[in-house]
Design brief:
Its EC number is 1.1.1.85. The chain has two domains: 197 residues, Isopropylmalate Dehydrogenase; 127 residues, Isopropylmalate Dehydrogenase. The longest helix has 19 residues. By secondary structure, the protein is α/β, with parallel strands linked by helices. A ten-stranded mixed β-sheet has the order 2-1-3-12-11-4-5-10-8-9, with helices on both faces. It has a two-stranded antiparallel ribbon with strand order 6-7. It binds nicotinamide-adenine-dinucleotide, 3-isopropylmalic acid and manganese (II) ion. 3-isopropylmalic acid (IPM) binds next to helix 4.
């Protein structure tokens, strides 16, 4: 098949990890007779430096026409001045909004070979297989915000807003996913305190009652979920939640497999291209050292093949290669648990070797 793919490496470790995923995509194309037309664009801090804009039209336009987009990460201390005109993260939020990518799938499935890389006990993480569905284009990330002076001090506010239609569509995505998995859907909110969460809870329940009565359905408050996620993670299948809660819970969830550097994600809309990225950030503390774990990004590339290009066999093949590399004992520093570790490029090479068989 022919496909237009856009790579947006971004900042920090972004270019290092996307380079490894690109090698994997090129290998898959040549092995399976596909033609991937790969172009690269700037987003985040590097785009601010080049164009004064974290998501210039020059970057966005090719994305609109792409079949899939693979992003590294944006941000870093260079652009962290709270008084700056714009920020790298604005570019990421804008591309999600512009492309209508309201459903962010974040699978969490620990690898048997990495049981010891997790800070949690083996009996807690064994058998865990959770799919988080995080709402991505609404909530407090996109509500009105402002700051003002009052009684001699500065006040700032961000509004958390959801409309029924926004909740319905993301709950539907999650419920459909649950139907193909263990038929268990959990909705996470803060309905004991927040009005917006009470709308979330009522709307989610209506959707499930009306169209997904085959599912086991429950609701959990977000503070309790933060605890259940690391005390009884095996009890969850698909978890649907709002933008901010999903952001926080999935970074926490990365400790089940053992590292942020292992978790990929897919951001999907009703139609149009999907955006694929690791859930982690630009890791300024290790950027430029050549030690970042490229596996989350390689797995995000596999999700792109699966969800946007319908290349299921190819996606399975990449995921199996990653698993076999881990089974063979290869580790980057973040999962080495004090043992011997490989650099970013070496880990990428191990995956390519495994793909070659
Ligand atoms: P981070 O996710 O970048 O890093 C958190 C910790 O995890 C760091 O110690 C880092 O070294 C480690 N880590 C992350 N990815 C790794 C990998 N692939 N291999 C090995 N170790 C890895 O979070 P942060 O430090 O809080 O944020 C840094 C910057 O990244 C901020 O500017 C933030 O806004 C941005 N950010 C961007 C995205 C994105 O682009 N999707 C996501 C999260 C954070
Ligand atoms: C993520 C990141 C982003 C988010 C930031 C960088 C805007 O943390 O993709 O998880 O909060 O959505
Ligand atoms: Mn995050």
């Amino acid at each position: 098949m022919r496909a237009n793919l856009v790579l947006l490496p971004g900042d920090g470790i972004g270019p290092e990890i996307v380079a490894e995923a690109e090698k994997v995509l090129k290998f898959i194309a040549s092995e399976h007779g596909h033609e991937f037309d790969i172009t690269t664009g700037e987003i985040g801090g590097c785009a601010i430096d080049a164009y004064g804009d974290p998501l210039p039209e020059k970057t966005l336009e090719p994305c609109r026409n792409a079949d899939g987009i693979l992003l590294g990460a944006v941000g870093g201390p260079k652009w962290d001045d709270p008084n700056a005109k714009t920020r790298p993260e604005v570019g990421l939020l804008k591309i999600r909004k512009e492309l209508g990518l309201f459903a962010n799938l974040r699978p969490i499935k620990p690898y048997a070979a990495l049981i010891d890389a997790s800070p949690l006990k083996k009996h807690i993480i064994e058998g865990v297989d959770i799919l988080f569905v995080r709402e991505l284009t609404g909530g407090i990330y996109f509500g009105d915000s402002r700051s003002w002076e009052e009684n001699g001090e500065t006040v700032a506010t961000n509004e958390m807003t959801y409309r029924t239609s926004e909740i319905e569509r993301v709950v539907r995505v999650a419920a459909k996913a649950a139907q193909t998995r263990n038929k268990h859907l959990t909705s996470v909110d803060k309905a004991n305190v927040l009005e917006v969460s009470r709308l979330w809870r009522k709307t989610a329940e209506n959707v499930v009652k009306k169209d997904f009565s085959d599912l086991k359905y429950d609701v959990v408050l977000v503070d309790a979920m933060a605890m259940h996620l690391i005390s009884r993670p095996r009890d969850f299948d698909v978890v649907v939640t709002g933008n901010l809660f999903g952001d926080i819970l999935t970074d926490e969830g990365s400790m089940l497999p053992g590292s942020l550097g292992l978790l990929p994600s897919a951001s999907l809309g009703e139609d149009g291209p999907g955006l694929y990225e690791p859930i982690h950030g630009s890791a300024p503390d290790i950027a430029g050292k050549g030690i970042a774990n490229p596996l989350a990004t390689i797995l995000a590339a596999a999700m792109m093949l699966r969800h946007s290009l319908n290349l299921i066999e190819e996606a399975d093949r990449i995921e199996a290669a990653v698993e076999s590399v881990l089974n063979a004992g290869h580790r980057t520093a973040d999962i080495a648990a004090g043992g011997k570790s490989l650099g970013t490029v070496e880990m990428g090479e191990k995956v390519l070797e495994a793909l070659k068989g």
